[in-house]
Specification:
The chain is mostly beta strands and 107 residues long. It has a single domain, classed as Thrombin, subunit H (Beta Barrel). Helices cover 4% and strands 48% of the residues. It contains 1 helix and 6 strands, in the order αββββββ. Strands 1-2-3-6-5-4 form a 6-stranded antiparallel barrel. The protein is globular and about 40 Å long. It holds the Pfam family DUF6916.
């Protein structure tokens, strides 16, 4: 499994528009597409080893239960497994009600 401290936005950017599998500690499995990887230089602590960034993943909302944040391991065929990570289901007016949207923040 990948060391979380070594990850950066650049690790994920080549995999935009590809599917990651999110697996919760309770066994919930969600296949979601990585749609955004954004860096936040102004939110990065001085001297930090990496620039703060977040990931946004999306999938059809049908069949995806609502949850208020949970611990998931994410897996990608090229990157392997990363986690556990705190994943929050977020609302986006742009995505609409038929899309489940998830955010992962790396500070």
């Amino acid at each position: 499994m990948t060391d979380l401290r070594s990850l950066s936005s650049a690790d994920f950017t080549p995999h935009l528009n590809s599917v990651f599998t999110l697996v919760s500690e309770e066994g919930l499995e969600i296949a979601a597409t990585l749609v955004v990887s954004t860096e936040y230089p102004r939110n990065t602590m001085r001297g930090a080893a990496r620039t703060a960034f977040d990931l946004i993943l999306e999938c059809p909302a049908d069949g995806v239960p609502h949850f208020n944040g949970a611990s998931f391991t994410i897996t990608h065929p090229v990157m392997g497994s990363v986690g556990p990570l705190y994943v929050e289901r977020v609302v986006s007016a742009a995505s609409g009600p038929d899309v489940a949207r998830f955010q992962i923040i790396f500070n």
